[in-house]
Amino acid sequence: MTPTPARPHLRIATEEAFAPPEMIRLYEKILAGSDVDPGFKGLMGFYMSSPSERARHIMRCLQDLDEVRLAHMDEAGIDHQVLALTAPGVQIMDTDTAVSFARFANDFLADAISRHPKRFSGMLTLPVQDPRAAALEIDRGVRQLGIRAAVINSHTHGQYLSDPKFWDIFAAAEQHGVPIYLHPNSLPRNMIEPFQECGLDGAIYGFGVETGLHALRIITAGVFDRFPRLQMIIGHMGEALPFWSYRLDYMHQATVRSKRYESIKPLLKKPSDYLRENFHITNSGVAWEPAIKFTQSIVGVDRVLYAMDYPYQYAVEEVGLLERMDMSAEDKKKFFQTNAQALFGIGPL
Fold first, then answer.
1. N or C: which end of the chain has fewer CB within 10 A?
2. Which positions are annotated as active-site residues?
3. Nearest alpha-carbon partner for 189 in 156, 147, 234
4. In this structure, are strands 80-85 and 279-282 parallel, antiparallel, or unpaired?
5. What are all long-range contacts of 66-72, with beta carbons under 8 Å and residues at least 24 apart?
6. How far apart are CA 36 and CA 241, in angstroms?
7. Which residues contact 16 (CB under 8 A, 6 or more apart)?
8. How confident is the model over 252-307, as pLDDT tens digits?
Protein backbone atom coordinates (compact mmCIF):
# COMPACT_ATOMS: atom_id res chain seq x y z
CA MET A 1 0.00 0.00 0.00
CA THR A 2 1.32 3.42 -0.90
CA PRO A 3 1.71 5.56 2.23
CA THR A 4 -0.34 8.75 2.47
CA PRO A 5 1.95 11.68 1.69
CA ALA A 6 2.63 14.07 4.53
CA ARG A 7 0.62 17.29 4.43
CA PRO A 8 2.70 20.40 3.67
CA HIS A 9 1.01 22.19 6.55
CA LEU A 10 -0.56 21.57 9.93
CA ARG A 11 -4.22 22.25 10.63
CA ILE A 12 -4.85 24.60 13.54
CA ALA A 13 -8.52 25.19 14.42
CA THR A 14 -8.98 28.56 16.08
CA GLU A 15 -12.54 28.77 17.48
CA GLU A 16 -13.06 25.61 19.47
CA ALA A 17 -15.25 25.69 22.59
CA PHE A 18 -14.99 24.03 25.98
CA ALA A 19 -16.89 24.21 29.28
CA PRO A 20 -15.71 23.03 32.71
CA PRO A 21 -18.34 20.86 34.43
CA GLU A 22 -18.31 23.39 37.27
CA MET A 23 -19.60 26.05 34.89
CA ILE A 24 -22.45 23.83 33.75
CA ARG A 25 -23.49 23.48 37.40
CA LEU A 26 -23.40 27.26 37.78
CA TYR A 27 -25.54 27.57 34.66
CA GLU A 28 -28.07 25.15 36.14
CA LYS A 29 -28.46 27.46 39.15
CA ILE A 30 -28.87 30.51 36.92
CA LEU A 31 -31.49 28.75 34.81
CA ALA A 32 -33.40 27.75 37.95
CA GLY A 33 -33.67 31.38 39.05
CA SER A 34 -36.35 33.94 38.31
CA ASP A 35 -36.31 36.30 35.32
CA VAL A 36 -33.76 34.26 33.36
CA ASP A 37 -32.26 36.03 30.35
CA PRO A 38 -34.34 34.80 27.37
CA GLY A 39 -31.35 34.39 25.10
CA PHE A 40 -29.44 32.35 27.66
CA LYS A 41 -32.51 30.23 28.37
CA GLY A 42 -33.13 29.67 24.68
CA LEU A 43 -29.51 28.69 23.95
CA MET A 44 -27.78 27.01 26.87
CA GLY A 45 -31.08 26.14 28.51
CA PHE A 46 -31.93 24.13 25.42
CA TYR A 47 -28.59 22.38 25.03
CA MET A 48 -28.46 21.47 28.71
CA SER A 49 -31.96 19.95 28.78
CA SER A 50 -32.69 18.59 25.31
CA PRO A 51 -32.49 14.81 24.72
CA SER A 52 -31.67 15.40 21.04
CA GLU A 53 -28.56 13.79 19.59
CA ARG A 54 -27.09 17.21 18.71
CA ALA A 55 -27.57 18.58 22.22
CA ARG A 56 -26.08 15.49 23.87
CA HIS A 57 -23.09 15.60 21.51
CA ILE A 58 -22.43 19.25 22.28
CA MET A 59 -22.71 18.91 26.06
CA ARG A 60 -20.50 15.81 26.13
CA CYS A 61 -17.82 17.31 23.91
CA LEU A 62 -17.77 20.73 25.57
CA GLN A 63 -16.78 19.14 28.87
CA ASP A 64 -14.10 16.81 27.52
CA LEU A 65 -10.53 18.01 27.01
CA ASP A 66 -8.95 14.60 26.75
CA GLU A 67 -9.94 11.33 25.06
CA VAL A 68 -13.17 12.27 23.26
CA ARG A 69 -11.90 15.59 21.93
CA LEU A 70 -8.52 14.23 20.90
CA ALA A 71 -10.19 11.33 19.08
CA HIS A 72 -12.41 13.77 17.18
CA MET A 73 -9.41 15.89 16.29
CA ASP A 74 -7.57 12.85 14.99
CA GLU A 75 -10.61 11.72 13.01
CA ALA A 76 -10.87 15.11 11.31
CA GLY A 77 -7.12 15.58 10.89
CA ILE A 78 -6.95 18.58 13.23
CA ASP A 79 -3.47 18.91 14.68
CA HIS A 80 -4.15 21.68 17.19
CA GLN A 81 -7.12 23.50 18.72
CA VAL A 82 -7.23 27.02 20.14
CA LEU A 83 -9.69 26.62 23.01
CA ALA A 84 -12.18 29.23 24.25
CA LEU A 85 -14.73 29.06 27.05
CA THR A 86 -18.09 28.56 25.39
CA ALA A 87 -20.55 31.44 25.16
CA PRO A 88 -21.78 33.15 27.22
CA GLY A 89 -18.89 32.15 29.47
CA VAL A 90 -18.76 34.22 32.63
CA GLN A 91 -20.60 37.13 31.04
CA ILE A 92 -24.02 35.81 32.14
CA MET A 93 -22.93 35.74 35.80
CA ASP A 94 -23.07 38.44 38.46
CA THR A 95 -19.89 40.50 38.73
CA ASP A 96 -18.33 38.83 41.77
CA THR A 97 -18.95 35.33 40.42
CA ALA A 98 -17.65 36.33 37.00
CA VAL A 99 -14.39 37.64 38.44
CA SER A 100 -13.72 34.52 40.52
CA PHE A 101 -14.86 32.02 37.92
CA ALA A 102 -12.83 33.63 35.15
CA ARG A 103 -9.71 32.85 37.17
CA PHE A 104 -10.90 29.27 37.70
CA ALA A 105 -11.72 28.80 34.01
CA ASN A 106 -8.36 30.16 32.90
CA ASP A 107 -6.51 27.92 35.34
CA PHE A 108 -8.62 25.00 34.09
CA LEU A 109 -7.62 25.87 30.53
CA ALA A 110 -3.95 26.21 31.41
CA ASP A 111 -4.05 22.77 33.03
CA ALA A 112 -5.53 21.22 29.87
CA ILE A 113 -2.83 22.89 27.77
CA SER A 114 -0.15 21.54 30.09
CA ARG A 115 -1.53 18.01 29.62
CA HIS A 116 -1.58 18.31 25.83
CA PRO A 117 0.81 21.12 24.87
CA LYS A 118 1.12 20.01 21.24
CA ARG A 119 -2.63 19.73 20.77
CA PHE A 120 -4.04 22.73 22.65
CA SER A 121 -3.52 26.43 23.18
CA GLY A 122 -6.19 28.86 24.28
CA MET A 123 -7.84 32.18 24.92
CA LEU A 124 -8.40 33.79 28.29
CA THR A 125 -11.95 34.38 29.44
CA LEU A 126 -12.52 37.83 30.90
CA PRO A 127 -14.98 39.16 33.52
CA VAL A 128 -16.12 42.04 31.33
CA GLN A 129 -18.54 43.17 34.06
CA ASP A 130 -15.49 44.51 35.95
CA PRO A 131 -13.18 46.04 33.31
CA ARG A 132 -10.34 46.61 35.78
CA ALA A 133 -10.49 42.98 36.92
CA ALA A 134 -10.58 41.89 33.27
CA ALA A 135 -7.46 43.94 32.55
CA LEU A 136 -5.71 42.35 35.52
CA GLU A 137 -6.73 38.89 34.30
CA ILE A 138 -5.10 39.62 30.94
CA ASP A 139 -1.91 40.51 32.79
CA ARG A 140 -2.11 37.36 34.95
CA GLY A 141 -2.92 35.18 31.97
CA VAL A 142 0.08 36.39 30.02
CA ARG A 143 2.58 36.47 32.87
CA GLN A 144 1.55 33.41 34.88
CA LEU A 145 -0.34 31.14 32.48
CA GLY A 146 1.42 31.91 29.22
CA ILE A 147 -1.88 32.42 27.37
CA ARG A 148 -1.61 35.26 24.87
CA ALA A 149 -5.14 35.72 23.52
CA ALA A 150 -8.58 36.42 24.98
CA VAL A 151 -12.22 35.82 24.09
CA ILE A 152 -15.20 38.06 24.77
CA ASN A 153 -18.64 36.69 23.97
CA SER A 154 -20.11 39.84 22.44
CA HIS A 155 -22.47 41.81 24.70
CA THR A 156 -22.50 41.55 28.49
CA HIS A 157 -26.04 41.92 29.86
CA GLY A 158 -26.84 44.01 26.81
CA GLN A 159 -23.82 46.32 27.16
CA TYR A 160 -21.22 46.80 24.44
CA LEU A 161 -17.48 47.35 24.38
CA SER A 162 -17.98 50.56 22.41
CA ASP A 163 -18.72 52.18 25.80
CA PRO A 164 -15.46 53.79 27.07
CA LYS A 165 -16.08 52.36 30.54
CA PHE A 166 -14.81 49.04 29.12
CA TRP A 167 -11.67 50.42 27.50
CA ASP A 168 -9.31 49.35 30.29
CA ILE A 169 -9.68 45.94 28.65
CA PHE A 170 -8.50 47.26 25.31
CA ALA A 171 -5.61 49.11 26.93
CA ALA A 172 -4.40 45.92 28.63
CA ALA A 173 -4.82 43.85 25.47
CA GLU A 174 -2.85 46.38 23.42
CA GLN A 175 -0.12 46.64 26.06
CA HIS A 176 0.38 42.87 26.18
CA GLY A 177 -0.15 42.21 22.48
CA VAL A 178 -3.19 40.06 23.26
CA PRO A 179 -5.72 39.71 20.41
CA ILE A 180 -9.37 39.64 21.47
CA TYR A 181 -11.72 37.21 19.78
CA LEU A 182 -15.18 38.78 19.61
CA HIS A 183 -17.38 35.69 19.66
CA PRO A 184 -21.17 35.57 19.33
CA ASN A 185 -23.51 35.50 22.29
CA SER A 186 -27.23 34.89 22.43
CA LEU A 187 -29.12 38.05 21.55
CA PRO A 188 -29.83 40.61 24.29
CA ARG A 189 -33.30 41.12 25.72
CA ASN A 190 -34.06 44.21 23.66
CA MET A 191 -33.15 42.51 20.37
CA ILE A 192 -34.16 38.87 20.57
CA GLU A 193 -37.94 38.70 20.09
CA PRO A 194 -38.26 39.21 16.30
CA PHE A 195 -35.44 36.71 15.75
CA GLN A 196 -36.56 34.11 18.26
CA GLU A 197 -40.20 34.01 17.17
CA CYS A 198 -39.14 32.69 13.76
CA GLY A 199 -36.20 30.54 14.89
CA LEU A 200 -33.49 32.83 13.49
CA ASP A 201 -31.90 33.99 16.74
CA GLY A 202 -28.98 31.55 16.81
CA ALA A 203 -26.07 30.68 14.55
CA ILE A 204 -28.27 30.61 11.47
CA TYR A 205 -28.53 34.43 11.47
CA GLY A 206 -28.95 36.23 14.79
CA PHE A 207 -25.43 35.57 16.08
CA GLY A 208 -23.87 37.11 13.00
CA VAL A 209 -26.15 40.14 13.05
CA GLU A 210 -25.46 40.91 16.71
CA THR A 211 -21.72 40.23 16.66
CA GLY A 212 -21.24 42.15 13.42
CA LEU A 213 -23.13 45.04 15.02
CA HIS A 214 -20.83 44.85 18.04
CA ALA A 215 -17.67 44.89 15.93
CA LEU A 216 -18.98 47.84 13.93
CA ARG A 217 -19.87 49.71 17.12
CA ILE A 218 -16.27 49.24 18.27
CA ILE A 219 -14.99 50.63 14.97
CA THR A 220 -17.29 53.64 14.82
CA ALA A 221 -16.70 54.50 18.49
CA GLY A 222 -13.06 55.22 17.61
CA VAL A 223 -11.54 52.35 19.60
CA PHE A 224 -8.80 51.77 17.04
CA ASP A 225 -7.95 55.45 16.83
CA ARG A 226 -7.39 55.31 20.59
CA PHE A 227 -5.68 51.86 20.53
CA PRO A 228 -4.11 51.57 17.06
CA ARG A 229 -2.09 48.42 17.85
CA LEU A 230 -5.10 46.52 19.22
CA GLN A 231 -5.96 43.39 17.26
CA MET A 232 -9.34 41.67 17.27
CA ILE A 233 -10.69 38.49 15.70
CA ILE A 234 -14.16 37.80 14.38
CA GLY A 235 -15.39 34.45 13.12
CA HIS A 236 -17.93 33.12 10.65
CA MET A 237 -16.29 34.90 7.73
CA GLY A 238 -16.21 38.23 9.58
CA GLU A 239 -19.90 38.18 10.54
CA ALA A 240 -20.56 39.53 7.00
CA LEU A 241 -18.67 42.81 7.52
CA PRO A 242 -16.15 42.25 4.67
CA PHE A 243 -19.07 41.85 2.26
CA TRP A 244 -20.52 45.18 3.44
CA SER A 245 -17.24 47.10 3.48
CA TYR A 246 -17.94 49.35 0.49
CA ARG A 247 -21.32 50.44 1.82
CA LEU A 248 -19.98 50.83 5.37
CA ASP A 249 -17.33 53.24 4.10
CA TYR A 250 -19.76 55.22 1.97
CA MET A 251 -22.55 55.51 4.52
CA HIS A 252 -20.22 56.23 7.43
CA GLN A 253 -18.87 59.25 5.60
CA ALA A 254 -22.37 60.31 4.56
CA THR A 255 -23.60 60.03 8.15
CA VAL A 256 -20.66 62.03 9.48
CA ARG A 257 -21.37 64.79 6.96
CA SER A 258 -25.07 64.84 7.78
CA LYS A 259 -24.39 65.19 11.53
CA ARG A 260 -27.45 63.03 12.08
CA TYR A 261 -26.13 61.13 15.11
CA GLU A 262 -24.07 62.41 18.01
CA SER A 263 -22.51 58.94 18.25
CA ILE A 264 -21.10 58.98 14.69
CA LYS A 265 -17.98 61.13 14.60
CA PRO A 266 -15.15 61.39 12.07
CA LEU A 267 -12.54 58.64 12.24
CA LEU A 268 -8.92 58.75 11.20
CA LYS A 269 -9.57 56.03 8.62
CA LYS A 270 -12.39 54.34 6.76
CA PRO A 271 -14.22 51.46 8.49
CA SER A 272 -12.78 49.04 5.92
CA ASP A 273 -9.26 50.19 6.82
CA TYR A 274 -9.78 49.03 10.39
CA LEU A 275 -11.03 45.68 9.08
CA ARG A 276 -7.77 45.34 7.14
CA GLU A 277 -5.45 46.59 9.87
CA ASN A 278 -7.05 45.64 13.21
CA PHE A 279 -9.10 42.50 12.53
CA HIS A 280 -8.33 38.88 11.76
CA ILE A 281 -11.13 36.73 10.40
CA THR A 282 -11.77 33.02 10.79
CA ASN A 283 -14.00 30.90 8.60
CA SER A 284 -15.56 29.11 11.59
CA GLY A 285 -18.67 27.31 10.44
CA VAL A 286 -18.26 28.48 6.82
CA ALA A 287 -16.51 25.84 4.73
CA TRP A 288 -17.10 27.77 1.53
CA GLU A 289 -14.26 28.59 -0.84
CA PRO A 290 -15.83 31.68 -2.50
CA ALA A 291 -16.39 33.39 0.86
CA ILE A 292 -12.89 32.58 2.05
CA LYS A 293 -11.24 33.88 -1.10
CA PHE A 294 -13.35 37.03 -1.13
CA THR A 295 -12.41 37.79 2.47
CA GLN A 296 -8.75 37.18 1.70
CA SER A 297 -9.08 39.69 -1.13
CA ILE A 298 -10.48 42.30 1.28
CA VAL A 299 -8.32 41.90 4.41
CA GLY A 300 -5.34 39.98 3.00
CA VAL A 301 -4.23 36.35 3.09
CA ASP A 302 -2.27 36.98 6.32
CA ARG A 303 -5.48 37.78 8.23
CA VAL A 304 -7.80 34.89 7.35
CA LEU A 305 -7.57 31.73 9.48
CA TYR A 306 -9.11 28.29 9.70
CA ALA A 307 -11.59 27.33 12.42
CA MET A 308 -13.98 24.41 12.76
CA ASP A 309 -16.36 25.74 15.48
CA TYR A 310 -16.16 22.49 17.45
CA PRO A 311 -18.27 20.98 18.91
CA TYR A 312 -21.17 23.06 17.59
CA GLN A 313 -20.13 22.30 14.02
CA TYR A 314 -18.21 19.05 13.78
CA ALA A 315 -18.27 18.03 10.13
CA VAL A 316 -15.23 15.98 9.16
CA GLU A 317 -16.00 16.27 5.45
CA GLU A 318 -15.58 20.07 5.61
CA VAL A 319 -11.87 19.66 6.27
CA GLY A 320 -11.48 17.87 2.95
CA LEU A 321 -13.49 20.55 1.16
CA LEU A 322 -11.13 23.22 2.42
CA GLU A 323 -8.04 21.19 1.58
CA ARG A 324 -9.25 21.02 -2.01
CA MET A 325 -9.58 24.80 -2.38
CA ASP A 326 -7.95 26.20 -5.50
CA MET A 327 -5.30 28.10 -3.57
CA SER A 328 -1.52 28.23 -3.65
CA ALA A 329 0.32 25.98 -1.23
CA GLU A 330 1.79 29.07 0.45
CA ASP A 331 -1.59 30.71 1.02
CA LYS A 332 -3.16 27.45 2.15
CA LYS A 333 -0.43 27.00 4.74
CA LYS A 334 -1.11 30.53 5.99
CA PHE A 335 -4.82 29.75 6.21
CA PHE A 336 -4.45 26.46 8.07
CA GLN A 337 -1.30 27.00 10.12
CA THR A 338 1.06 29.95 10.12
CA ASN A 339 -1.45 32.79 10.50
CA ALA A 340 -2.72 31.11 13.67
CA GLN A 341 0.78 30.50 14.97
CA ALA A 342 1.66 34.16 14.55
CA LEU A 343 -1.58 35.52 15.98
CA PHE A 344 -1.93 33.23 18.99
CA GLY A 345 1.77 32.86 19.75
CA ILE A 346 1.80 29.12 19.05
CA GLY A 347 5.30 27.72 18.88
CA PRO A 348 6.59 24.76 16.85
CA LEU A 349 4.25 21.76 16.92
1. N
2. 309
3. 156
4. unpaired
5. 66/115, 66/116, 69/310, 70/116, 70/119, 72/310, 72/311, 72/314
6. 31
7. 81, 82, 83, 84, 307, 308, 309, 310
8. 999 999 999 999 999 999 999 999 999 999 999 999 999 999 999 999 999 999 99
Q: Residue 344 to residues 56, 146, 323: CA-CA distances in angstroms?
A: 30, 11, 22
Q: 198 lies in which domain range?
A: 12-344
Is residue 1 assigned to a domain?
no
Number of domains in the chain: 1
pLDDT tens-digit map of 144-157: 999 999 999 999 99
In tens, the pLDDT along 206-238 reads 999 999 999 999 999 999 999 999 999 999 999
Amino acid of residue 18: F
**How far is 163 from 31, CA to CA, in rounded Å?**
28
Burial of 256 (0-12, 13-18, 19+ CB in 10 A): middle
Q: Is residue 115 part of a domain?
A: yes
Q: Is pLDDT of 37 > 70?
A: yes
- Split at pLDDT 50, 70, 90, the class of 7 is confident
Q: Which one, of 182, 271, 186, lies nearest residue 235 by Cα?
A: 182
Q: Is 194 domain-assigned?
A: yes
Q: Residue 167 maps to which CATH number?
A: 3.20.20.140
